[in-house]
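Deliverable D4.2, example record:
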Amino acid sequence: HSMDARVQTERMMASAEGRPEFSVVSPVRNEAENVESLVREIAQALAGRAFEIIFVDDSSQDDTRARLFALKDKIPNLRVIGHRKNAGQSRAVRTGVLAARSPVVLTLDGDGQNDPGDLPGLLAQLNRADAPGDLGLVQGRRDKRIDSGWKKFGSRFANNIRRSMLKDSNTDSGCGMRAFKRDAYLQIPYFDHMHRYLPALMQSEGFMVEERAVGHRARQHGQSNYTNFGRLADALSDMRGVMWLRKRRRSPGGTDEI
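Output generated by the structure prediction step:
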């Protein structure tokens, strides 16, 4: 009951201040055939709530941006932000988070493989009344991945290496579906590919991380912007960087204004 009252209060405050209760961010590049149905699904899954949808177009070469722009009339809480140059998925997520007008951000990939129906559950877990005060991130976990065997192998291999090197106890940090506190995310240093290491980076900044099972769907249109070999080469270099960042971190153990 107290949870209902708290959520109700938060929603009333958000609408009174004219700001959304939460922001949904999706990075996209060359996903023209996927974006319209994805925006509509997000809007439907969260109907009745005060939220904004932010799609960040990472300099697509197809008509992704034009299709998103055309949707703004039909879905007034949709915002479209375009990169002038291709800057990668992590930068697109960061662009969306910086633009977000809410303290809570939900992210999902723009290829349609994440199910927007899972967004309310991620949000509820992050915002629940008995959540630990330092809970910064609820990370999605794809229990049944709908991908080629080769892609699943590459992902499993990278996840195993990451877990053994970073000891972050997270089983699927490559899943783009997550809910987090915006201020927690903005305390983490930015670097390319950081979106794959969010649980480890959040933990090293002193935040608690939880997981939640989410669905996964087959890609309907277009093709992935990644290859296994490209991802693995980047991963080894990135993990060394994450380990260095963690080693160089110094925590004040909390702060007090006196």
